[in-house]
């Protein structure tokens, strides 16, 4: 997101959630930025999963453990409670079998941290309602014909889903691109971060 | 000679004491044993910077540098040397040959001390585990208690995995490349065709050909089949297409096509350096290789070996899914693992050719393991 040179805001808040010296599986870890931050700040033992070959090299250059593969199959192969945390940051909306991945993440991790772009951020609403266009925002930066996102969900959607499926919401953090949002997050936050666990 | 380890020499480690006799997986015993090897770089005072390179089926101990007067360097010279993936300014690199071979180590063409004649088929059947047991003797003789890494492609990858299965406490990291946890029926089938080609040659003589000529035609055919499996459809198209050696068809069975000429050349040059019986023994060792179903981690103690698993997209002899099965076994045992499927059109040969990508992975991976151990 914005401020790429410095620390990403979502990374900072996710890092705050994670307990020191824990084990972390980061699904869709990209170039390993979050895993490195967690290693430095929280001395975690980390494992990444990433599908893009070029990102694998960047992770290895950072000294991280990373598996080249897709989230669905790589996750399914782990035993129950293999990690303290399973992180799905900006990746859940891109997997094909989203629900299966969530179920498996809750099985493999003691806690799961999910971060996703909120589709009903007010700027998105504005573009849909007044311009009649598929929204393009900082959190949803793609044109409709180029987007890797397969699922478009909102903060409310996710809360609703968790209560329907009896999933424990332990923490919520809502962000727009500059700061944390406390009021009407489904309107004013472009990103929702949830720490969840099995009840 | 830029970035080269320079002139190197093949060394021989001889193990001739009674205690050196190896109890083989078959139950038979083998000794005395000679193992050919080379080393590059310097062992540090703590003896903590040693990397063992193990070679593929027809490889040898000459992995890097040049023999005096030779034009061609060792088989992995692009990867081993000052500033390269296996940086000889930092690491002490050992490349060990295998028992059963014919390139300096004890094998079926060696003299059997009991008969003073070549072993031929008197040589006991060996396995990948037996090869590794012999290498352990070499590593210990060099005064090394723990290897920083064991790395190899193809059959070398099997040896790297076998090292972890047998001596996990001696291996800080392993880099199996383009390899498998067990030989598949397809791989066994190709090996069997190669062996049948050798044994069908009348010169084979039940392996007793050392006083005459070796079964050159059979061995050459076996090698030609091998080379087909090392390439990909795409790399063969790029390298040969349907190009002819001359301008038109000869309307005979001469080698009209460039691909035929290439295979014949490869077959003919192979028989000059490789022993037909070693071909039988080593392919058999690969066929017996199976560390699946928990056999990779059969010891009770927790394994702390870090892994880097590399595969190549166009490799159909040791396909990507087989590397994924290695990774799955590692995940089930909570082993730190990095894996990469390198996009390549070279087929199985890619592990010898995709230098840039492998170097990027291996140099950083090794650096991490080395710093961790300090």
Provide a descriptive summary of the structure in words.
- The complex is a heterodimer of chains A (199) and B (374).
- Chain A has helices at residues 9-17, 33-42, 53-61, 71-76, 98-108, 122-131, 155-164, 185-188; strands spanning 23-27, 45-50, 66-68, 83-89, 109-117, 167-175, 191-198.
- Chain A is an alpha/beta fold and 199 residues long.
- Chain A has a single domain, classed as Vaccinia Virus protein VP39 (Rossmann fold, 3-Layer(aba) Sandwich), CATH 3.40.50.150.
- Chain A has a seven-stranded mixed beta sheet, with helices on both faces.
- In chain A, helix 1 packs across helix 2 (33-42).
- Chain A is globular and about 45 Å long.
- Chain B has 374 residues and is an alpha/beta fold.
- Chain B folds into two domains: 11-182 and 291-373, Rossmann fold; 187-285, Rna Polymerase Sigma Factor, Chain: A (Orthogonal Bundle).
- Chain B contains ten helices and 14 strands.
- The longest helix of chain B is centred in the last third of the chain and has 19 residues, at 355-373.
- Chain A binds chain B through residues 45, 47, 53, 56-57, 59-61, 63-69, 77-79, 82, and chain B through 306, 308, 324, 327-328, 331-332, 334, 336-343, 357, 360-361, 364-365, 367-368, 371.
**How many helices of chain A?**
8
Average pLDDT over all residues of chain A: 93
Shape of chain B: globular
- Percent in helix of chain B: 25-40%
> Which architecture of chain A does the CATH hierarchy give at level 2?
3-Layer(aba) Sandwich
Q: Largest interface, by Cβ-Cβ below 8 angstroms: which chains and how many residues each?
A: A-B, 19 and 24 residues
| Portion in strands of chain B | 15-25%
Provide a short characterization of the protein structure:
The complex is a heterodimer of chains A (199) and B (374). Chain A contains eight helices and seven strands, in the order H-E-H-E-H-E-H-E-H-E-H-H-E-H-E.
What keywords describe this structure?
heterodimer, A: 199 residues, alpha/beta, Rossmann fold, seven-stranded mixed sheet, 35% helix, globular, disordered N terminus, B: 374 residues, Rna Polymerase Sigma Factor, Chain: A, 2 domains, eight-stranded mixed sheet, two-stranded antiparallel sheet
């Amino acid at each position: 997101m914005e401020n790429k040179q410095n620390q990403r805001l979502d990374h900072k808040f996710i890092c705050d959630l994670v307990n020191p010296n824990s084990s972390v599986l980061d699904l869709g870890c990209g170039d390993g930025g979050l895993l490195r931050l967690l290693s430095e700040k929280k001395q975690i033992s980390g494992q990444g999963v990433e599908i893009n070959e070029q990102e694998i090299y960047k992770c290895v250059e950072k000294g991280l453990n990373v598996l080249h593969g897709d989230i669905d199959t790589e996750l399914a192969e782990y035993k129950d409670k293999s990690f303290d945390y399973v992180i799905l940051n900006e990746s859940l909306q891109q997997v094909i079998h989203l629900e299966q991945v969530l179920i498996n993440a809750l099985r493999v991790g003691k806690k799961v941290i999910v971060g996703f772009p909120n589709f009903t951020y007010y700027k998105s609403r504005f573009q849909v309602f007044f311009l009649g266009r598929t929204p393009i925002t900082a959190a949803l930066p793609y044109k409709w014909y180029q987007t890797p996102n397969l699922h478009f969900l909102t903060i409310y959607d996710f809360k609703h889903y968790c209560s329907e499926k009896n999933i424990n919401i332990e923490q919520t953090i809502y962000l727009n691109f500059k700061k944390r949002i406390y009021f009407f997050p489904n309107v004013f936050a472009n990103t929702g971060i949830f720490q969840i666990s099995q009840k | 000679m830029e970035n080269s380890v320079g002139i190197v020499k093949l060394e021989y480690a001889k193990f001739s004491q009674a205690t050196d006799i190896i109890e083989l997986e078959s139950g038979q015993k083998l000794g005395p044993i000679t193992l050919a090897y080379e080393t590059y770089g310097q062992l540090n005072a703590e003896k903590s910077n040693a990397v063992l390179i193990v070679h593929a089926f027809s490889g040898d101990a000459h992995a890097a540098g040049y023999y005096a007067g030779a034009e061609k360097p060792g088989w992995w010279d692009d990867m081993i040397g000052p500033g390269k993936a296996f940086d000889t300014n930092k690491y002490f690199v050992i490349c060990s040959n295998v028992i059963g071979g014919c390139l300096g180590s004890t094998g079926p063409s060696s003299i059997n001390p009991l008969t003073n004649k070549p072993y031929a088929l008197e040589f006991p059947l060996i396995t990948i585990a037996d090869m590794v047991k012999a290498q352990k003797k070499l590593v210990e003789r060099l005064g090394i208690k723990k290897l920083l890494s064991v790395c190899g492609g193809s059959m070398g990858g099997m040896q790297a995995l076998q090292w972890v299965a047998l001596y996990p406490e001696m291996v800080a990291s392993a880099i199996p490349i383009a390899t498998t946890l067990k030989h598949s029926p397809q791989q066994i089938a190709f090996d069997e065709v190669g062996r049948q080609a050798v044994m069908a040659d009348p010169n084979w003589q039940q392996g007793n050909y050392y006083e005459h000529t070796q079964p050159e035609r059979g061995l050459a055919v076996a090698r030609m089949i091998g080379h087909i499996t090392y390439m990909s459809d795409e790399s063969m198209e790029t390298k040969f297409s349907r190009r002819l050696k001359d301008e038109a068809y000869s309307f005979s069975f001469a080698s009209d096509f460039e691909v035929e000429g290439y295979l014949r050349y490869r077959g003919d040059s192979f028989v000059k350096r490789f022993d037909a019986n070693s071909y039988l023994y080593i392919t058999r060792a690969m066929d017996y290789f199976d560390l699946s179903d928990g056999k990779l981690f059969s010891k009770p103690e927790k394994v702390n070996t870090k892994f880097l698993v590399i595969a190549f997209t166009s490799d159909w002899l040791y396909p990507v899914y087989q590397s994924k099965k290695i990774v799955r076994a590692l995940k089930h045992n909570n082993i730190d693992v990095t894996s990469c499927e390198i996009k390549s059109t070279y087929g199985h040969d890619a592990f010898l050719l995709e230098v840039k990508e492998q170097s990027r992975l291996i140099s950083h991976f090794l650096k991490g393991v080395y710093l961790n151990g300090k």
